[in-house]
Every structure is written in C-alpha cells, then in structure tokens.
Design goal:
Helix content: 55-70%
Number of strands: 4
Structural class: mainly alpha
Length: 475
C-alpha cells in the first residue's frame, strides 16, 4: 500500500495541469513529514520513485516565474522530513535522479534544471545551517557528495553537472553567509570536496573550471581576520578627483559576507597537491594557486601590523593619469644643462613597468613645431669622431641626437662612439686557449654500455664478412 501511495504521488506530480501539480506538492509535503518517522524510514527505492515524479513535475513547468516557484518548492521539501536519515537520503536520491536523467534533458529545458540545481544545493546547505552545522550531519552529507556528484573518477556523473556545480558552489555559500555567518571550521570542511576535485580529476576542462569557479573566487573573499583583499591602484581617468577615486576603490572592494583564512587554504591546497597520485599538471596548477594564497595572507598580515590613520595623504594615492610630459620635460631640460641622463619620475612599483614603457615610446616628450630631420643628424654624428676631452683639456659634454618617430613623436639619444663592425679575430692568447685540449667528457655507465654494444655489433659484422678472425680460429 505504501508503494502504491508513492506511485500515486509520482503520477499526480507529472500531469500537465499546473493546479493539479501544486495540490500534489502540498499533499506530498504533509505526507513526507508524517511518513518519515523514526519507526519507519524511507528506503532508497521509495525515495527514487518520488524523485522521478518530482523530476517530471519540473519538466512540465513552463514560463520562468512558474519554473522558479516549482524549483523552490521541490528544493524546500528536504525541510519537511522529520529525521536526518530520511533528509540525507532525500538529498542523495535527488542528485542521483538528476544524473540519471541528465542526458534526456534537451537544450530548451536545460536552463530551468540548472536553476533547480542552484536552489537545491542552497537548500542542502540551508538544512545543515538549520541544524547548527552538526559535525556528524555535515560529514555524512559531504561524504555522499564526495562519493556521488563530486567524484572525479565516476562515470555515472555527467561532466555538465560537475561543471555547473563548480560555478554555483561558492556563490551559494555566499548567499547563506549573508543571513548567518558560516564558521571557518565548517567552511573548511565544505570546501575540501571541491578542492580535492581539482587535484584528482583527469580532465583538463574540469581542472580549469574548478580553478576558475572555486579557487579564484576564494582569492577575492574577505579574510577571517576582517581584512579585505590588498588595495589596488585607481584606474585611468580617476586621478583628477581624489574623492571619486577613493569612492570607486571602496565600491570595488566591498567586503563579502563569506570570510576565509587564506593561509589555511594554502595549506589545504598544498596537502592535496602533494599526494603521489596527483598528476604533474594538476600539481603545478595547485602549487601556483597555493603561492597566491600565501601572498594574500602575507599582505593581510602586513596591512594588519601597519598603523591605521584617519587622514588620507594625497602623496600615497597613485593614479594612472599622470602629467608625464611636464615631468619628463623638466628632467630633459635639467639633463641638457648638466650633461647627464634624464631621471625617470618616481612611480609605484606596480606601475613602474608601464611608465617605463611609456617613456621609452616617447609619448611623454613635448613635440616641436617643426620636426628635426633625423637622417642628417645621424649621418653627421657618424662622420664626426668622438673625443673624451676638448682641445683645452676640459672634459667634453655628451651630445644628444633627436630622432623623429611616427606621429610627430621625438626621442632623444646620447651620442656614442661608432661601433666597430670589422670581423672578429682571436688574439694570440685566445687562439692558444682555443687550441688547448679540454678535459674529456666523463663517460657514464649508460654510455659505456652503449659503446660496448656497438663494438660487439661491429665485431660480429666483421666476422661475418671475414675481416676479423673468430675466437675458435685464434685458439
């Protein structure tokens, strides 16, 4: 009679009429609470029959709002079960049914099942949050995840299910953390199955998706010590107004409700990557991410130890918009008067390479009204010999040459001695050193075996042709 009751629910849930499906869902919610008593628990076959009807209940739902309401109602059924054993079995059978029916879902219905996965995963974690993150309950659910949908070597789990799980795993935890803070010890256990997926998978696409969807979002999260990610420089166009630049930087670094310990994550990633069974490609990728976690942790410690000030010093606010022309122009004029090279402007370390590249391209130098002919100046410089001192004996200043580049840009170079293009001839000492006998290369045991084999082959070839007498004839 109980089996007939479950089959009846499955039939009512898969009808095309929306009102009939809604009534069946309401009755199923009440029946699940009364049926899942400690005296009589659900078995796996009974739960799979119910989930087959719930799967086709979502299949029959049309229009976005109706589909979202159906996904929420189906996902929240886990809270109607009276015992934790039935709830965990309900969660496990739900993921198993989705994996079994995944290949039957067409592209027109794929979006609503992806949305259902997000709501279902959220309610799975909400059930654990409702029970105050009990250790046994959390460990049992994560064990089912590791042996089920997050098993990297399972052929029963479709690749599309795992790829979508890597996209929604961290955002779902962030949504839960907005309502109630997730302790770091619990979050560490929740993240370990997906981190082990990156270490043990043999599919490159799965490794890339795990690193981009799980590990890289964790790099941007706030630390458990209340520190956000290290500060960044303002973007171009924001240097004119300091207040607007500071507001933009604050908005970009809004703290997340989900807080992680980057140093502990580095240790977890290192422990997973150092296993002997992990492939070299996965190990290299995880070691790189481990170093990124460590660098963020060091930056957090440095920012925590530095004294905080209420006033903001404008000299420490670096922006990408700089008056390079004024700086390089003043340095060029000062260098022409003193005869030394123009000094580069003081820029932060992160922007130094960009500033150096811009200065080398000549973008910051002032453009003269009439371009200077470059060929004549270069020819004159090549024809005139260079001397270190004048006729009076005083040191001669270095001359400068201007070259006109593209787009009326000008760059100045220091005049140097002409390059000797004559062919190289070794001196007497160099010739003797080249003719000296160098130390022979040491012969390794492997090379010695190869030489012995080649010698034996050549001797056998010579014996066959008669060039070398055999051992019997010699005796």
């Amino acid at each position: 009679m109980q089996t007939a009751r479950e089959v009846e629910f499955a039939k009512r849930l898969s009808v095309s009429d929306k009102s009939s499906r809604d009534k069946a869902l309401k009755k199923l919610r009440t029946w699940l609470h009364s049926r899942s008593l400690p005296s009589e628990e659900f078995c796996a076959d009974e739960m799979m029959k119910l989930w087959r009807g719930l799967h086709y209940c979502m299949w029959m739902s049309d229009k976005p709002l109706i589909q979202e309401d159906c996904a929420k109602n189906i996902s929240s059924l886990v809270h109607s079960l009276a015992t934790s054993v039935s709830a965990l079995r309900f969660v496990d059978c739900g993921w198993l049914t989705l994996c079994q029916e995944w290949h039957t879902i067409d592209r027109l219905r794929l979006d609503k099942y992806l949305m259902m996965m997000r709501h279902y995963l959220r309610q799975n974690f909400a059930y654990l949050q409702k029970h105050k993150w009990e250790t046994e309950l959390v460990d049992e659910m994560l064990t089912n995840f590791t042996l089920g949908i997050l098993d990297p070597n399972s052929e029963d789990v479709p690749l599309g299910v795992q790829l979508h799980l890597t996209d929604i795993y961290v955002p779902v935890l962030q949504d839960l953390a907005e309502k109630e803070e997730i302790p770091w010890k619990v979050l560490e256990r929740l993240l370990r199955p997906v981190l082990s997926l990156a270490a043990e998978t043999a599919k490159p696409v799965m490794l890339k998706a795990t690193c981009q969807g799980i590990i890289e979002p964790l790099l941007e999260l706030t630390s458990v010590y209340g520190l956000s990610t290290p500060p960044v420089f303002a973007a171009e166009g924001e240097g004119s107004d300091d207040d607007e630049a500071m507001d933009t930087e604050t908005d970009a670094q809004s703290p997340s409700a989900l807080k992680v310990d980057h140093a502990a994550l580095a240790q977890i990633v290192f422990s997973l990557a150092s296993v002997k069974s992990v492939s070299q490609k996965n190990r290299s990728a995880l070691y790189l991410l481990k170093r990124r976690f460590e660098s963020i942790a060091v930056a957090h410690v440095a920012s925590e130890s530095s004294p905080s000030t209420d006033t903001v010093d404008d000299s420490h606010v670096y922006t990408a918009e700089r008056d390079v022309s004024a700086t390089t122009g003043s340095n060029a004029s000062a260098s022409e008067s003193s005869g030394s090279e123009p000094s580069s402007p003081v820029v932060p370390s992160k922007k130094r390479k960009r500033k150096r590249r811009a200065a080398s391209a000549g973008s910051g130098l002032s453009v003269p009204s009439t371009p200077v002919p470059a060929v004549a100046s270069v020819a004159a410089a090549a024809s005139t010999p260079t001397h270190n001192a004048t006729e009076d004996g005083s040191p001669q200043k270095k001359k400068r040459i201007r070259l006109s580049l593209k787009d009326n840009q000008v760059k100045q170079f220091s005049k140097k001695d002409p390059i000797d293009v004559s062919p190289w001839k070794p001196s007497s000492k160099e010739g003797k050193s080249l003719l000296k006998n160098k130390t022979p290369t040491p012969i390794t045991p492997r090379m010695r075996r190869i030489l012995a084999q080649e010698k034996e082959k050549s001797n056998a070839r010579r014996r066959s042709t008669g060039d070398l007498p055999s051992a019997k004839s010699l005796s």
